[in-house]
Specification:
The structure is a homohexamer. Chain A is an alpha/beta fold. Chain A folds into 2 domains: 108 residues, Rossmann fold (3-Layer(aba) Sandwich), CATH 3.40.50.12500; 103 residues, Rossmann fold, CATH 3.40.50. Helices cover 47% and strands 17% of the residues of chain A. Chain A has a 4-stranded parallel β-sheet with strand order 2-1-3-4, with helices on both faces. In chain A, helix 4 links the parallel strand 3 and strand 4. Chain A is globular. Chains in contact: A-B, A-C, A-E, A-F, B-C, B-D, B-F, C-D, C-E, D-E, D-F, E-F. Chains A, B, C, D, E, F: GO terms for molecular function: amino-acid racemase activity. Chains A, B, C, D, E, F: InterPro entries: Asp/Glu/hydantoin_racemase, Hydantoin_racemase-like, Iso_Racemase_Enz_sf. Chains A, B, C, D, E, F: It comes from Sulfitobacter sediminilitoris.
Chain lengths: 219, 219, 219, 219, 219, 219
Amino acid sequence: MTIFVVNPNSSQHVTDGIDRAVEPMRGASPVPIATRTLVEGPPGIETQAHVDGVVGPLLAHCAELEEQASAFVIACFSDPGLAALREQSARSILGIAEAAILTAMTLGQRFGIVSILSKSVPRHMRYVGAMGVMDRLAGDLPLELGVQELADETRTFERLKVVGAALRDTAMADVVILGCAGMTPFRNDLEAHLGVPVIEPCQAATAMAIGRVALQQTR
Amino acid sequence: MTIFVVNPNSSQHVTDGIDRAVEPMRGASPVPIATRTLVEGPPGIETQAHVDGVVGPLLAHCAELEEQASAFVIACFSDPGLAALREQSARSILGIAEAAILTAMTLGQRFGIVSILSKSVPRHMRYVGAMGVMDRLAGDLPLELGVQELADETRTFERLKVVGAALRDTAMADVVILGCAGMTPFRNDLEAHLGVPVIEPCQAATAMAIGRVALQQTR
Amino acid sequence: MTIFVVNPNSSQHVTDGIDRAVEPMRGASPVPIATRTLVEGPPGIETQAHVDGVVGPLLAHCAELEEQASAFVIACFSDPGLAALREQSARSILGIAEAAILTAMTLGQRFGIVSILSKSVPRHMRYVGAMGVMDRLAGDLPLELGVQELADETRTFERLKVVGAALRDTAMADVVILGCAGMTPFRNDLEAHLGVPVIEPCQAATAMAIGRVALQQTR
Amino acid sequence: MTIFVVNPNSSQHVTDGIDRAVEPMRGASPVPIATRTLVEGPPGIETQAHVDGVVGPLLAHCAELEEQASAFVIACFSDPGLAALREQSARSILGIAEAAILTAMTLGQRFGIVSILSKSVPRHMRYVGAMGVMDRLAGDLPLELGVQELADETRTFERLKVVGAALRDTAMADVVILGCAGMTPFRNDLEAHLGVPVIEPCQAATAMAIGRVALQQTR
Amino acid sequence: MTIFVVNPNSSQHVTDGIDRAVEPMRGASPVPIATRTLVEGPPGIETQAHVDGVVGPLLAHCAELEEQASAFVIACFSDPGLAALREQSARSILGIAEAAILTAMTLGQRFGIVSILSKSVPRHMRYVGAMGVMDRLAGDLPLELGVQELADETRTFERLKVVGAALRDTAMADVVILGCAGMTPFRNDLEAHLGVPVIEPCQAATAMAIGRVALQQTR
Amino acid sequence: MTIFVVNPNSSQHVTDGIDRAVEPMRGASPVPIATRTLVEGPPGIETQAHVDGVVGPLLAHCAELEEQASAFVIACFSDPGLAALREQSARSILGIAEAAILTAMTLGQRFGIVSILSKSVPRHMRYVGAMGVMDRLAGDLPLELGVQELADETRTFERLKVVGAALRDTAMADVVILGCAGMTPFRNDLEAHLGVPVIEPCQAATAMAIGRVALQQTR
């Protein structure tokens, strides 16, 4: 039995980053943790159409793995297919956005979200509303960096520090969530810089999945 | 230019019912109102997987109609693809659940929803939460009738009266929404029976679409 | 039968502006649209006492028009008498603030309101709270311009751009509502400048009224 | 200087009941407490039109008393003119519904409201929403008794016990508010019967006004 | 019978300030107002451990005073032991944070809180959430001044003006609460400077307690 | 390093039950799981005074274990000392109420809580409010069973079935939380009976703690 962390975009590069993110947890997991790339997905999930469009292939992908799976983690911050996979599967199902938010709710009273682009913010707001936790949201602010700019790590980290500080000082966030599956390398440094907990969502969700595997032993 | 009311399931029978629902409004619309069946859809939209699964074909269907369209109405109470179609299209886009709820908010202070099955209620709750109007919801109660039972109109109307009265008297709803695209024939009688406004969502959304076509003249 | 758009202040100048605002929609309406001035109203509605004080004359005014009316639109952003007129009249009743907010909820996830003066903001907050949509509000910011300053269109538009940008960039609004019945001439330019939908409330409410007239055909 | 408790309906009988309600507090008040009847008001405030319609005369009535007043209490559970009087007057202004709700928030975690008629419930819901305290509301249930039935004290008390128990046991209210200015005589017995605090709103508001008179000494 | 205002920290200096804060109200109170120092408390209540830790001694302190008490006011802005004392005592129990917030809700539509330190903000947020009034909160901003800096009155007042203005102009607060028991001397000047009501919580709670003593006469 | 599950009451019998609850998870945990009894606690935590009163000894108890601890779980459904322990300790800190609620939020859209006694419900409501998740609460209903009645397992299970069904069918809960640390033996049977997930809070929190231990490897 395995925890499958499924990247619903087709970028192996992103999956590799997720794998590195969860690598340190493997020794503490009672079951293997495997990362997967949804080859049918788009190179990146940037629009609501991408979010909705990957659900079908994601469900099919997970259906094939059902018998081998202890849990599934959907590794995209829009949590595509989360409700649908919960209806389909008998396993523990976690989405990285939901898990990051629930984790943040134990580490601070008001969470801030760092988004890549402002056009994602309305999608996040719908989701925070659907989760019923709008009163815990301090703010959601974008880096507003394009793909090429994100490739420049120095620049990205500078923006992370500026946006994180705005969330902490203006929006009064006392915990910050990285609103994207690909910012793991910055987490520790950003947390040290800001002085408040910074949550990497793939790690938060996989950690929660490990707990669920343990919880399954009580059934 | 046309208002397209798209039934995202493949049942022509359902589309015919929607067509009858909007028929009386055609004389008051500045543009034609056309109903469409999404042949790629499932026979009925019953699960979250169905909801997410029709988005791709629905977007493609609407993309082809874009140049002829004044507005699109998505005629399924789960509003599949609403956010995605808004990102894709330059037309006015309405979903029947959203439009029914917004209409209800002008006809009463707390709306009740009549669902077909209890398993739809959590999906509705996520949606009411995403809309940020949970404080206006009185309750969401299911008929709990299967497809065959729904075919019995007498029985269906009896359940509608019981559930509607529970929403009005116990949940204190002062306006009731039919939470499904196929209950038009019962609307007038149920409203007369309950003594509070009863909203048929396809009609509410198409009415709103007619308004939007007028509003487009101001641009 | 007619849609009556009633300006509850006594300024014919304001009514003329409202008439120009709805003029482009007349061709798309199944019934005539008539604007009315409430001669018993104050020259402008600036205080809560004004809001409450016009309700009596407004109800009387509309009672006389009841038999000729398809719908009434109350054309003041405080929606004076909205609930009372709904109790009194059998027609469709819309208020421009409520209709603008409901329309905004279909065009973006978080709406910002541009108020004329900061002293109106608490009144708006009570209203947004009564509507139960506080989680959809991004912010409400004042132009803080007096009557004479508002007469200077260049200056007014400058302030609109500044306040609109603050709502969009700081409060993260993705749709902006003009919180006053008299800013129609700026709508298109402000929308072009901001790059997010800008809603003129008289137009939004009248559009919704047109839809309601169509909806009445289904009864 | 005097605390004026103004009954905005024209019924001297109701004012007399309010006077008896506040009579026991006179000895504990630093200033006289005077009750007033708004002769321009309707015999009873039953509709939103009544609520809005009394604001003008109420403001005039209070303006004349301004110089003699320490505080005004508006003694109708719809709090007519509360916001307007706060804008007009320099005195402490309290409404009996608002004061009863704020008092309830210190005596229990979820308050129930006993209304006379179900048609008042939507008006109350708008108000609880405008106050931003919907999460503290357990429920609002009507006695559904007409004027003549209310004259029968035995019957009224029976209904109060039934509705109060429903609020306590089904809606899980741990404090109950009498949602009307005229139920003082039942308060003590109902509280004894239900075993949870029961709030009479005229008393709650006048008590708060006494506190405000004391608070004014710090300015 | 006496209103006891209990300072749950052991600083007599703080108690003396509270005594001066309530001194002007003594003449308007039907019973004596006595201030008390909880000698078992810490010198200042700065952490959640302090808040929880004083509850036991506070309950014991108040139990001894029960027979002499009309009401108790807990004079620390974290309202330590409020719910517990309400369970233990038959008297009216008020906390200065709760009372200040409820008072603010009658003086403005959105309240701002001035905290001493940012580390108190999450504690306040939990409390505002538990009160169910998050929609009425404009913001909570810290002075971020240490004990020594607070001793410099000029500097403290400068910060109060800056933070108060930020709450008023950026967060759109129309009433400001001093989120600490020791800022009484600044209240009047800050209110004059800001032009919106400023609430000193010990005074607000004691005023409310005076009202409750009057209300007890109706039982 | 160890996960310490601390029962803050002094009943070894309760601790033994908790130990049996978490026993099946030990094989899946990367570190030992030890249960502890707070000997300074009361025999049962039934009042707010008990909740507040155990915080001091609990903090001291945990401070001694800090160096050996990976995580602490506070095993009482009132989560006494949760915020204080988070301020004091550098370890992962979980409370069983918070963890049960967060877990429920991934297994259903609206959670119901089964309380032992109705007098706990207001305390739970304050907590659900402080967590900001009131919109996800379906209801909180009491078994209303005393200690002796609880000793009768047949009777207790009968009440659990009745109350659970009321939460599911009337309050429309789609996940149920056992609102007490001592109902583990009923969980599986109740879940089978109700057909919706039933959460035992000690297990939920310990599972989450196991995840956090894994997450700590990424730091």
